Amino acid sequence: MKQLTITPNDAGQRLDRFLSKALPLLPEGLLQKYIRLKRVKVNGAGAKRDARIEAGDILELYINDEFFEKPSDKNAHLKIAAPRLDIVYEDQNLLLLNKPAGQLCHSDGAWEADTLIAHVQAHVRLNGAWNPHSENSFAPALCNRIDRNTGGLVVAAKNAEALRILNEKIRGREIDKYYLCAVFGAMNPPSGRLENYLFKDAVKNRVYVRSERGPGTKTAVTEYRTLCKNGGLSLLECRLLTGRTHQIRAQLAHAGHPLLGDGKYGSERKNRACGEKHQALWSYKLVFTFPTDAGALNYLRGKTFTVPRVDFAERYFEGKYLRL
Question: Residue 22 and residue 18: Cα distance in Å, rounded?
Fold first, then answer.
């Protein structure tokens, strides 16, 4: 028999969901069976799978020892002695990070030590804010993701309460996300709204823009405004009202203005002429609007965070966006 004490980072979860995180080697079917057979006790009594656990609860687990081992491939952060992070802001609850283009947020298969989340977990562990050996189920997590070849702001939660609040605020669109991008040509009108439907082909990892709703499509809405122009390029600020895969890239290409450097939706010939191999897209600003209560994160209401510089905006538009 093993005993676990529920910590504040574990509290509020369903019993079965907590156990699936705490015991990742335990098959789901067997987990549910053990709960039904009362081989999982909460404070000395059997409990239903959807029971909510609270801080201080004692779990008694009559489960074989082999299921308590931790998968070794989930410990990439332990291999990182000097985390590489461009930190825009940090407090006791969260990190705002300026992710470089080319870095994965999470592993895309076999666990990789150079992912953003691995460096985040290494940073929090080395600073003493998180001890993976004393946690039952929680690990610092990213609240939003951006594509590998897109750079910019990513939010990471350092505790379970912050993760819950930030996830709720992102789902409720209470955090505004702004991107800078360089596109070919001039938008007409200079400011506006792109609204259509995206269909994702998972096999090709590509999305297709549709003017009408159809099977498998999702609504995509992006507001844009032109900040400045230089020759055949325009610098746009885009505000996401939905968060679909490749949304900005696909919608702007569909509108006839593909991103500079975008090899999937843009023009290879034009990209080569400019010498660009990476898409000119950067998540450069977050605004914590929080029109509803944010609990422990209320202190962030109304705050805006911006990256200090964006390379392609400096090179092609001389940083004029910073003065707008």
Answer: 6
